[in-house]
Amino acid sequence: MSGTNQNWMNMSMAGPIFLTLLVFMVPGVYAADDLFGMGGTSGVGYYKGDYVSDTIPSSLEAGSSYPVVISFQNNGMVSWEWGVEKFGLLYQGLQSSITVDPVFSPIPAGMKVATQEEISFPFVLTPPDKPGEYELSFSMSTRKGEDKYTPFPNGFTKKIIVIPKEGVSSGNVGSIIIQSNPTGAMVSMGSEEKGKTPLTLPDLNPAQYEITVSHPDYGRKWAQVRVEPGSVSRVTVDLTTSEKPVVSTEQLLKFTPLGWLLDNISLIIISIIILFFGFQVIMMDTKRIPEHHPVRRYTRPLILLAPYADGKSRFQRGLSKDGRGESTGGGADASGGADGDRRREQGKTAGSESGTRKSVRDRKIRRDGESSERKPIETEEDESLPDVEDPDQEGREIEGIYGFPHALRDRYEPLGVAGDDTYARVYKVRKKESGDVRALKVGHSKQPGSEILQKESAVWRSLRHPNIVHLFKSEFLDDMSYLENEYLDGVSYKGMVHTSLNGLPKPIREQYAVSLVRDIAEGLKYAHDVGVRHYHLQSGDILLTPKLRAKVSGFARGRNELGFSVKDSDVRGATAAFITPEQRDEQKYGNPGRRTDIYQLGVIFYELLTGYLPYSPEAFQKSGHEGTFEDHADELILPSAFRKSLEKYDPIIVRMLSRKKSGRYYLMDEFIKDLDSVRKA
């Protein structure tokens, strides 16, 4: 009996043990999640994506666009790829007022994300105009058809705060906007940390605040900032120099009487029109305002409809010198009555018996041999000259001063041509509304901008950094596209003004070359930090200030990736030396990325130091190497081959201009650190 009980106990224990082994040994059939009721999609336990990181700011400024990147890790049991099953990151907060583009960011074709691997997805966030707290929600998902999605069970949710434009929501408060060089510095108000630069502190009560900006690599600086009602105080801090922070305060136009007037101009005009015509209706009723009332002395010239002696209203075409209407044919005023008799006694012409013909006074035209005597002329109607279309008039207007488009002249005053290429012409203009000088880039093509170009311009408009040219506005009309950029006067060098590095004589002094390249690197570092790549960096895209500081331009070209789903990059108009190996042969060298910009920056640095482009016949011949260029086409001639004093930059140039991406700097921070080490040495 005891043996039977023992066997029964062994069998009862074998069942759970077998089930447990089956769960862990056959993961493709069962998953622990599903056993506890946590499984989600079909293919139990196969699909699982966990949130890793994101670049979404905690506060967004109303009306601006923010390029962000969200990273997820594949913790499921199958690889993610765009094949039979279409994987991507889905935005699930459609009930929110925040616009997210695209709603579904797919995994690029040809990419495979295995288990435990991570992938980053780009999005552009555009907050609403109404400030407040909002919630964003994302999760990995599969797509079937055009708009049918199956999200994974675990997602990512983040609450953000939308602050008003420039941080001021009413005329009783102000704001502080802090920018630093380099970016990413910690901002503290008193002893409280507020975030990292660039940073906007919104809706502050009028008072004096102590702002401290610190960076682990550059120390700290502080400033006293006075906040005024309805104004914005801007703090600019350069941590790389010993200069004090620059603080400026400007009154926002929308909180001034002029701003209120401009904001309500349409309502004011409508109110004036309603009051005007309402008063005309009142004036038509002679019983309300007597004939000899003083108010008629001032309102009579405005009356459009006036009653005649017969009590009927007539349309008044004009007024006589004494304020009475001239005859318009018919009625007592034209054919009889006391008023008509007085006019005839004074020698004024009256209407004909039929009332269909009328007298008008001719306009005196002085010609040689003609009489200057005034004569009444009778005509059937008061005819005016017909409008005759001139087919060449529009062409002459467009081909006016500097070839500036006629459609933009009501907003901009052309001051000159700043540049021209195969894609567009750049004008120096003055805005008629504000008087600010801008650079207006007008495309030669008479077609509206592509969807990618419009997305890129929205991304560019959100980039705010001292070393990036600011894009104020972009418009893509049916027959014209243009960008309104910050205008830079350029630098005067050897009697000529150069607005970009393209025309600057090279080589230049070593200290200037290093300073310019560092400016460019800071701008690109900021762009890389927010998920934006340039991919077209050339000397012509680097604009100069009168103090020889560099700013990066040219982020919007219509086929630039910028984190969007565009595989190829349009480099057809680029100088050959700036085209990276991965842009020539993607299968051999891999996809473009941050290191593409680092390579192109290396080309600029090399040319500034040596006066030649890398991997060029001119550089090979000048170096004095033996043999032919064709046999050494892939050999990089070091800067020290031209001047011994440039030897310290050889290791940096080698890492920037490596043919293989793995040999280049991984981050712009690494390059800046090496460059600063050489400068200090």
Automatic annotation (TrEMBL):
Domain Protein kinase per the UniProt entry, residue ranges: 412-678
For bias kind Gly residues, which ranges apply? 326-338
Which InterPro entries does the record match to this protein?
Answer: Ig-like_fold, Kinase-like_dom_sf, PEGA, Prot_kinase_dom, Ser_Thr_kinase
Gene Ontology cellular component?
cytoplasm
Q: Which domain of life is it from?
A: Archaea
A Pfam family of the record is PEGA
Cite the residue spans of the region called Disordered. 315-395
Residues that span the membrane, as ranges: 258-279
| Annotated Acidic residues bias | 379-392
- Renumbered to this chain, the Basic and acidic residues biased-composition regions fall at 365-378
What name does this protein carry?
Serine/threonine protein kinase
